[in-house]
């Protein structure tokens, strides 16, 4: 089973490769991260039109309804331990912790996260799981 970070979810959506998300997992945090990335592409980078923003948000809403959402509530200290030990953000440490706790393969296209996460869990890129 796969735990998708926000980066992986967005990359799969942009490529139209949604089937691999079925039966998958993510963090509640990914909802905020993906929405913020879309806002950034529209507002700051001017890469997409407003109509696309709302289509993407609608699609992501459906995706988050089918993914099994996890939270770090109750495990904040454990997540902080990973973040402090590895010098990474709480966001990244959260994905590692949830993948470890639930014996999930972490799917990410973030090279920095990948390099650290592989010490703790199995990792894959979106290309690995779609080819």
TrEMBL record:
CDD domains: PIN_Pae0151-like. Keywords: Magnesium. Gene3D superfamilies: 5'-nuclease. It comes from the Archaea. Residues 4-118 form the PIN domain. InterPro entries: PIN-like_dom_sf (IPR029060), PIN_dom (IPR002716), PIN_Pae0151-like (IPR044153), TypeII_TA_RNase_PINc/VapC (IPR051619). Pfam families: PIN. This is PIN domain-containing protein. It comes from Ignisphaera aggregans.
